[in-house]
Design brief:
By secondary structure, this protein is an alpha/beta fold. It folds into two domains: about 15-230, Alpha-Beta Complex (Spore Coat Polysaccharide Biosynthesis Protein SpsA, Chain A), CATH 3.90.550; about 255-445, UDP N-Acetylglucosamine Acyltransferase, domain 1. Helices cover about 15% and strands about 30% of the residues. The protein has eight helices and 38 strands. The radius of gyration is 32 Å and the shape is elongated. Bound molecules: uridine-diphosphate-N-acetylglucosamine and calcium ion.
Length: about 475
């Protein structure tokens, strides 16, 4: 008997994440913990939670697809342990035992249980600091498949019984094991070393540490998660999709609470970070990726995709626009059906209209390209009007060249600017011009065959014969 031995209040937290399982039911070439949830690997969510708890060490047990998992997290400060073969959750913690300290509080998380919140784990850490074993349980209407928490008449946790090992009475228990637990490092090390695999699955069950703790006279505290969502695991694509909606609903609720209007919180997807000013309106079906910043009063029309971009105050992104790596100034008018690609820097009051693409270009204040244009590798001044169908021919098949359009230029429709080329301030380009040399400031430059009309000309008709 060791009894409860409280450990140092300043003991460090070491988090062990179990991520060696195969994830057969995903039917994927990708290890399960690398499947994306809200745009990030499942494992990234779990490691984030560990970071929020100020974990001093994060230990990930890998097995199936170990190389892929290591590569995906090579930048993160993570300690990897290999579990080969995979003989169960208890066996997985055995592999990590060399990586955690005796005098640390050790928290075990699951790589495929990504929604648990840091605050929910706090009671487990408190239990472990008092020298006890802390478990996270949850009440489920349908507990099928989960390990059941068996309590005695006094409500004390006695043991956990896996679904496959449970008898009828135990199967009726609705309080289930989330798998997540915390304990003093020295005790956890001892208990996992003592596990046996004499059960239905011939695995070393981590859950058997509960009975070992009881035998040692160590108290077991099961804290029941307030939201059953937090305990949900991902075993197949359908569960992954369900979790995605839960995460997106959390995102939507946070934005609504912060004063953002979402036309329909159920049709909103954020795969990154969205920072919004006051009175932002987001219509249905939009996808936000990376880091997106929307200023006060920005309106995003339906079915737009915004990635790593910013829109200044009062800007409007109309329906079906795709914005990636661009900065739009205040009062911008973008779309519908506009495409802004990386390196697009639009000043205030710029209008980019339907079927216009901008790439690696700066566009000055008050300039407009409202219809069917391509502006690539260009420096566009202020108050420039780019007519419909204008193209910067920036690529000669080998190299990219810049087009410079100075302030107050007017470009007629269907103009091609063959870069490198410069259009001087205040110049006008006649419609249909193919510009191959610089256009002087303030002048009209036009390149097109002179128009002529043939008075006596007759349109050929069927049956007209020539010759003989
Ligand atoms: C486990 C628990 C069960 C609990 C359920 C909650 C055990 C014995 N059972 O069951 O009480 O209700 O989780 O979801 O712990 N893993 C490894 N190495 C292994 C086996 C698993 O790293 O050898 C990892 C998996 O990648 C996964 C996690 O451990 O992240 C859970 O494994 P899984 O096989 O899904 O456990 P369950 O049978 O669901
Ligand atoms: Ca599982």
């Amino acid at each position: 008997m060791v009894q409860n031995l409280p450990i140092d209040a300043a003991a460090p937290l070491h988090v062990v994440v179990l991520a060696a399982g195969r994830g057969t039911r995903m039917r994927s070439a990708r290890p399960k913990v690398l499947q994306p949830l809200a745009g990030r690997a499942l494992l990234a969510h779990v490691l984030d939670t560990a970071a929020q708890l100020d974990a001093q060490r994060r230990i990930v047990v890998v097995g199936h697809g170990a190389e892929q998992v290591r590569d995906a997290f090579s930048d993160a400060a993570v300690h990897f342990c290999l579990q080969q073969p995979q003989l169960g959750t208890g066996h997985a913690v055995q592999q990590a035992a060399a990586a955690f300290d005796d005098d640390a509080v050790v928290l075990v998380l699951y790589g495929d249980v990504p929604l648990v919140r840091a605050a929910t784990l706090q009671p487990l850490l408190d239990a472990a600091r008092s020298g006890a074993l802390g478990l996270l349980s949850v009440e489920l209407a349908d507990p099928g498949g989960y390990g059941r928490i068996v309590r005695d008449a006094a409500g004390q946790v006695q043991r956990i019984v896996e679904h496959k090992d449970a008898d009828r009475a135990e199967l009726a228990i609705r309080e289930v094991n989330t798998g997540i637990l915390a304990a003093p490092g020295a005790l956890l090390r001892r208990w996992v070393a003592a596990l046996r695999d004499d059960n239905a699955q011939h695995e070393f069950y981590l859950t058997d540490v509960v009975a070992l703790a009881r035998a040692d006279g160590v108290a077991v505290h099961a804290s029941v998660a307030a939201h059953a969502d937090e305990a949900l695991g991902v075993n197949d694509r359908s569960q992954l999709a369900a979790l995605e909606r839960i995460v997106q609903r959390r995102h939507a609720d946070a934005l609504l609470a912060a004063g953002v209007t979402l036309a329909d919180p159920a049709r909103f997807d954020l795969r990154g970070e969205l920072r919004c000013g006051q009175d932002v309106f987001i219509d249905v079906g939009c996808v936000f990726e990376g880091v997106v910043e929307l200023g006060d009063g920005v309106v995003v029309g339906p079915h737009s995709v915004l990635r790593d971009c910013s829109v200044g105050a009062g800007g409007r992104i109309d329906a079906f626009s795709h914005i990636d790596g661009a900065r739009c100034g205040a009062q911008a008018r973008i779309g519908p059906f506009a495409r802004l690609r990386p390196g697009s820097e639009l000043a205030d009051d710029v209008h980019i209209g339907n079927f216009t693409e901008v790439k690696n270009s700066s566009v000055g204040r008050g300039s407009k390209a409202n219809h069917l244009s391509y502006v690539g590798d260009a420096t566009v001044g202020e108050r420039v009007n780019i007519g419909a169908g204008t193209i910067t021919c920036n690529y000669d098949g080998a190299n990219k060249h810049r087009t410079v359009i100075e302030d107050d230029v007017f470009i007629g429709s269907d103009t091609q600017l063959v870069a490198p080329v410069r259009v001087g301030a205040g110049a006008t380009l006649g419609a249909g011009t193919t510009l191959t040399r610089d256009a002087p400031a303030q002048q009209l430059t036009v390149s097109r065959a002179r128009q002529q009309s043939l008075a006596g000309w007759k349109r050929p008709r069927k049956g007209d014969q020539q010759g003989d």
